[in-house]
Hints:
The protein has helices at residues 2-26, 71-86, 123-136, 143-150, 154-161, 173-183, 193-213, 222-235, 262-269, 274-296, 302-326, 333-350, 362-374, 384-395; strands at residues 33-36, 42-46, 49-57, 65-66, 95-100, 103-104, 164-167, 220-221. It is an alpha/beta fold. It has two domains: 2-179, no CATH class; 258-395, no CATH class. Strand 1 and strand 2 form a beta hairpin. Helix 1 runs parallel beside helix 6 and helix 7 packs antiparallel against helix 8 (222-235). The radius of gyration is 31 Å and the shape is elongated. The two termini are 61 Å apart.
Amino acid sequence: xxxxxxxxxxxxxxxxxxxxxxxxxxxxxxxxxxxxxxxxxxxxxxxxxxxxxxxxxxxxxxxxxxxxxxxxxxxxxxxxxxxxxxxxxxxxxxxxxxxxxxxxxxxxxxxxxxxxxxxxxxxxxxxxxxxxxxxxxxxxxxxxxxxxxxxxxxxxxxxxxxxxxxxxxxxxxxxxxxxxxxxxxxxxxxxxxxxxxxxxxxxxxxxxxxxxxxxxxxxxxxxxxxxxxxxxxxxxxxxxxxxxxxxxxxxxxxxxxxxxxxxxxxxxxxxxxxxxxxxxxxxxxxxxxxxxxxxxxxxxxxxxxxxxxxxxxxxxxxxxxxxxxxxxxxxxxxxxxxxxxxxxxxxxxxxxxxxxxxxxxxxxxxxxxxxxxxxxxxxxxxxxxxxxxxxxxxxxxxxxxxxx
Length: 404
């Protein structure tokens, strides 16, 4: 059981590190650059060198404290002392920050390393306490950290500690979300802030994964994140909607159930080739998931979707009736298939019927037509109802509300 809890805590620690990095970047200057696991847990950079090294420590319990013998404190000091020893000149102008959900014990060394504005900062007293602990403590778990700390000269320890700042009682991983939401308060109308946040964090975690996959060789800029937020702002307007699947070429959702395969049979009636059918399945998935997400996020009402479908059906009816007029009563099957493909090609490649003026993603129109096609409310072959209504009834258990 303890192994499970330790694994959970470790996983939360990594997620906290990434989420807190987003909060810090949002609160930083427009020219800021940040990295994760490159120079430290998190680091602000300039010209490829760190200017602020940040260690994050997350704990499930808010009752623990940052004492003079805290492993969090000494593990962090060991990391920084090692870097300082390896190249003191490189870290001459670097700030070191420990961000922890723990609380610094009263009159502890950590409490003497608060930021200056707290009026509690006392470098000399902090160094005196840490020196005493490192020299006299018998804590075996911290021994390597003590030895590394004491390997610095008095002047080096003083110089290092003058650059160390401890922020205790920092927000937990859940509370950090609330702080990020406050940063986004002007990014969208209040009712949409959470929806903006969810998309921003999805972007951010994908960005962090990409960053870590490249061994942290690149940094992430404040401007890049702000531009993404600006794009989201444009999407959360009355004349627009967010497009969450625009950059996904092939979306593989759940496995299609029988009752979701009618639109595929529609395409087979007009001998559409399999590669295009695969595209149609992807459009169906993307439109279905996108519309569902809009409803969950309360960005759109069901009646707006119904009105949109009515518009799609109306445009289809005009072209379908024109096609029927041009077909002879005894047209060959090849002619019926060709004319049906021409009608399908219109919705697949030419039709422009946006659900909102600026919401023009083609997969919404295409996928919505496939959803209507799946219910036989639209079709491509002139005899689609006669050919498919028995199959439709079979798939839907005899329900036949939408046919005809």
